[in-house]
Amino acid sequence: MYIFLKNTGLTLSLCMAVSFSVATYGKQKSISWLDSQINKDPEVVAAKELLNASNHRAKSLTQAVYNPELEASYEKEGDFDNYSIGISQTIDFWDKQSTNKTIGEIDVYANQQQLLSLLDSKKANALTALVNWQAAKKAAQLLSEREEQLQTLVGIVEDKRKAGLLEPLDAELVYLNLSQIFSEISESQIALKNAEVKVQELLPDWTPNTTNLFSFTFGATSYSFNSQWVEEHPKVKLARAKWKGQQSKAQLTTMESKADPTIGVSAGKSGDEDLVGVTFSMPLNIRNNYTDNVKAAYSEAIAAEANFQSVYRKQSFEAKANYESLNVSRKYYEQWQKLTKGRLDSSENLLNKRWQAGDINTSDYLLALNQRAEGLHAGIRLENQFKLAEISFILSMGQLSKFDI
After folding, report:
1. For residue 273, what are the β-bridge partners?
2. Alpha-carbon distance 66 to 97, whole Å?
3. Burial class of residue 275 (count of CB atoms within 10 Å of its CB; 0-12, 13-18, 19+)
4. What angle do CA 224, 35, 195 make, to 5 degrees?
5. Cα(55)–Cα(292) distance, rounded to whole angstroms?
6. Secondary-structure percent of the chain, ordered helix, strand, coil, rounded to 5
7. What is the H or E stretch that residue 237 is in?
8. By mean pLDDT, which of 30-39, 333-342, 344-353, 373-382 is the weakest?
9. Which keywords are on file for this protein (predicted)?
10. Which residues contact 352 (CB under 8 A, 6 or more apart)?
């Protein structure tokens, strides 16, 4: 199944990968490695068990509200044995059973949305951690390459200095640059290790050598904001379910404030006479008519509706903000790609040739190398920023589970 978002001619194709329902949940034929890791998270396990519990509770709420009552009595009066046996049944006159069933179904639905929201959040956190680790790894590799470059440069400088082709100051500049690189390498290695630990926290079986996750991509060529998708976001649907559930509970409170009659029949023997009886009872809600309970329940329903509106509004603005951030980050990342395409490698070769030929001095050469390194670091930061914005936008639109990652 494919879903297309269209806005000003832009189309986003999404692959539907996950489908949930009470009957089919947990019977998926195959899940991705990433999903299998997320399913091991204790919070996810707890959410699944709560869904199972709500499913059982929903089944229990389809049962009758009142059970019949069996009554029996025996007494001895002189030579006579008096006894009776009877059965009574309270009538669900206001059909509480139907409302209970609705409450149970809504509760199951709410727990489904709670689980979906949690799974999306966990996947987004895992992808964010992977993206940050990838950026940290690229930055560390870049600094390692600069270290090797400067180490090689030190040897060349020493040879030229001994041959009288370079001033001692040029050699000192190389040493100073190298010492600065050591500090940067240390910081990048610490950042890389922290990023690795964060990924391992979220993905138990992940190692830095895990394949197929290094360069994951959503494969989308364009994006658009769709308010209807915000309405279908698990958080929004969860808030709506809680609102509807509170309305049903308010209706049930109203029903419980009304009395239900109890009818019974009995048969027995008193002395030599047979007894047959019919009983009828009805609670009299005189001293307490439960109106305050009803008012409280409907106030809670109104509060739940307001909470739903708040969640929907917040999710809408969050999605819009993420959409704008995605557009900006993508724009400048693509501009960086176009601007630096083929230039960074050629500029390095050109700088090396000109410096070795003596066309530029060592100070300018080192400055140019640092500027080139800054350009590469800027690319890493822009790519990281774009990928994080992409994850945030798709998550805020409630579409993360639709991608097969």
Report:
1. 270
2. 9
3. middle
4. 85
5. 31
6. 65, 10, 25
7. helix 234-256
8. 344-353
9. Lipoprotein
10. none
* CA distance linking residue 301 with residue 285, whole number of Å: 24
Q: How far is CA 386 from CA 280, 297, 379, in A?
A: 73, 47, 10
pLDDT in tens, 264-287: 999 998 888 888 999 999 999 889
Please list the residues that pair with 12 across neighbouring strands: 5
349-359 burial, b at 16+ Cβ within 10 Å, e below that, comes to eebeeebeeee
Answer whether 170's CB lies under 8 Å from 363's CB: yes
| CA terminus-to-terminus distance, the chain | 16
The DSSP code sequence of 301-325 is HHHHHHHHHHHHHHHHHHHHHHHHH
Q: 98-141, pLDDT tens digit by residue? A: 999 999 999 999 999 999 999 999 999 999 999 999 999 999 99
* 79 three-state secondary structure: coil
Tokens 């297309």 -> residue? 4
CA atoms in the 13 A half-sphere facing the CB of 336: 19
**CB distance 270 to 80 below 8 Å:** yes
DSSP state of 285: T
Domains with residue ranges and CATH for the chain: 33-213+221-402 (1.20.1600.10)
Beta-sheet pairing, 10-15 with 262-270: unpaired
Contact 252, 96 (CB under 8 A): yes
- Check: CB of residue 129 under 8 Å from CB of residue 202: yes
